Structures are given as structure tokens and as C-alpha cells.
Amino acid sequence: MVTGRSRGLVRGLVVASHFPPTVMVTAFALALSAGIGAGARTTTLVALAVLTGQLSVGWSNDWLDARRDVAVGRADKPVVTGLVTAATLRTAALVALGACLVLSLATGLLPGVVHVVAVGVAWSYNALLKATWWSWAPYAVSFGLLAVF
């Protein structure tokens, strides 16, 4: 049975995933993979790996920023509005990251490692580089590696 509480949790997870960029990056990766003739299996694995990687990045962003978002009253953040907890986002981010690792490596060792590095670099933005002069670097590296993947 779907309750109002579970609908709120799903809504919170969708918002915290940074849904529009997650969908756009996943669609780009899918189109790029299909466009180079990677085949249905590989294209599906690429899309799922990128989706789970993007979900992990979005959820980790809101998890790692939760205290600050609450302190400054960011009403656009689902942790602040009570839709989802930071602990739930941590769990979701880590589960998505695990799935990303498996799906990435299922595309092959070299492309899998490339994608895992791209996702790791994106996590470095959330965890370390967001408020530094180097905040641009994870975007440049990760999006460059996405095309390689």
C-alpha cells in the first residue's frame, strides 16, 4: 500500500537526485553509446551505470550538505522540508554507488574503471572541492571521461 509518507519519501529521493541533470546526463550517455553502435546490451549497461552513478552523486550531494542546508533554511532541499533524512540519502547514495560499480565493470574492465573514476571525481566535488577554487575541475574531468566511457 502506498501511503502519503512513502510518496513523500519517493518525492524526496527524486528531488535529492537532482532529477533534471540526472535524466539529461543519462540520456546523453545512452544516445552516445547507441550512436557509436555499441549494441543493445552495452548501451543498456552504459545507461544503467550512468543513471546509478548520477543518482549516487545527487544523493551524496544532499546528504553531505544536509547540516548546512538545515542551518541556512534551504527550503528547496528535501532534508530541510522533512521529505527524506540525511541517513536515508546516505544509504541510497551508497547503494546506488555499489550498483554503479557493478554495472560499470559489466561493460568491460577498462570502460568500467573509466566510469568509476568519473563518478569518484564527481563525489570529490561533493565531499571536498565544492567551496574551493578547484570546484570546476570535477565537472571537466567527469564529463570528459563520460565521453570516453
Describe this structure in words.
- With 149 residues, the chain is mostly helical.
- The protein is 81% helix and 0% strand.
- The protein is built from eight helices and no strands.
- Helix 3 runs parallel beside helix 7 and helix 7 runs antiparallel to helix 8.
- The longest helix has 25 residues.
- The relative contact order is 0.14.
- The model has no long low-confidence stretch (mean pLDDT 93).
In short:
Helix content is 81%, strand content 0%.
Q: Return the string of H and E elements.
A: HHHHHHHH
Note the overall shape: globular
- With helices defined by DSSP (H or I, 4 residues minimum), what is the helix count? 8
Assign the structural class, choosing from mainly alpha, mainly beta, alpha/beta, alpha+beta, or little secondary structure. Answer: mainly alpha
Helix content: over 70%
Distance between the termini: 40 Å
Q: Compute the gyration radius: what is it? A: 16 Å
Q: Please give the largest β-sheet.
A: none
Assess the beta-strand content as a share of residues. under 5%
The unreliable regions are none
- How many DSSP-defined strands? 0
Question: What descriptors fit this protein?
Answer:
149 residues; mainly alpha; globular
